[in-house]
Amino acid sequence: MSRILAVGIATVDIVNTLASYPDEDAEVRVLAQRRARGGNATNTLVILSQLGHSTAWAGLLPQEPDAQIVIDDLNKHQVDLAPVQRPLAGKLPTSYIALGENTGSRTIMHYRDLPEYDFSSFDELALGGYDWIHFEGRHVSALGPMLKKTKQAGIPCSLEVEKPREGIEALFGLPDALLFSRNYVQSRGYALARDFLQRQSFSRPAFVAWGEAGAWCRSSRNEIHHAPAPRVRVVDSLGAGDVFNAGVIDGLLNALPLEKILVHAVSLASAKCAREGLEI
């Protein structure tokens, strides 16, 4: 069992299930509604906990009523909250999600009134007990010092690059694994994951999740691998990328070959899409 720390956010997700995604100005009935804990880093930790790892979350959790949803769910999955900062002010980030029942696809509207987790908080942590640290690519000015401290401590780490953020490309040489989203790759003008990977000069393994097409990775020796996604009836794609990231981290910690890591991560993400929630 490895001990894994993830740095990122937790949210409250308000998920509205619709028969299909509505047209502009339409008035539609919601088939079902649920409130759940969300957030990329914490989603990934919940999966890693179910895969048998010991996990901990470093982030901000304001002292307000909605925080209890996060606390209850992470306690249920035995995620250690000791590194969490608890500011008195601020609102827990909230995602309003429209989930189309006919396709399983989702649209997310995100509200945030909370500062980012900063380097001073990370600098107070005793990192020696961790075998891996995973970072959301969010607060770039703090992320650089965090990655450098992690490398100085000799702890392997991964970086999720979900969205384009100014200056994040300068950090790509620091983590031991890069995890890219389709959104980021397309924002850089690439229609295909393979083209993106072939035209980069990464010195670390790089992974790209691509939904129903599966995922690709490029090794540090410039070998490119692909794992197709198994056919499933998509029920809920919310959090599938976070599940994929957990599969990659699990595979790396177990020293699997890259092609087997891809298959493992894609299989986990596909199985998640076939059911609601993050219980595997």
Give the overall average pLDDT. Answer: 94
**Secondary structure tally: strands:** 13
Shape: globular
Distance between the amino and carboxyl termini? 18 Å
Structural class, by secondary structure, is alpha/beta
Order of neighbouring strands in the sheet with most strands: 5-4-1-8-9-10-11-12-13
Helix content percent band: 25-40%
Beta-strand percentage? 25-35%
Query: Number of DSSP helices?
Result: 8
The ordered string of helix (H) and strand (E) elements is EEEHEHEEEHEHEEHHEEEHH
Q: Provide the low-confidence segments as ranges.
A: none
Radius of gyration of CA atoms, rounded to a whole number = 18 Å
Largest sheet: 9 strands, mixed
Topology diagram in text:
Blueprint lengths: L2 E5 L3 E8 L13 E7 L1 H11 L3 E5 L8 H10 L2 E2 L10 E10 L5 E8 L5 H5 L8 E5 L3 H13 L4 E5 L15 E4 L1 H6 L5 H6 L7 E4 L5 E4 L5 E4 L12 H14 L4 H16 L7
Parallel strand pairs: 1-4, 1-8, 2-6, 4-5, 8-9, 9-10, 10-11
Antiparallel strand pairs: 2-3, 6-7, 11-12, 12-13
Structure commentary:
The chain is built from eight helices and 13 strands. It has a nine-stranded mixed sheet, with helices on both faces. The chain has a four-stranded mixed sheet with strand order 3-2-6-7. α1 (40-50) crosses α7. With 280 residues, the chain is an alpha/beta fold. A hairpin with a 5-residue loop joins β12 and β13 (224-227). Helices cover 29% and strands 25% of the residues.
Summarize the model shown.
The chain has helices at 40-50, 67-76, 119-123, 140-152, 182-187, 193-198, 240-253, 258-273, and strands at 3-7, 11-18, 32-38, 54-58, 79-80, 91-100, 106-113, 132-136, 157-161, 177-180, 206-209, 215-218, 224-227. The chain is α/β, with parallel strands linked by helices and 280 residues long.
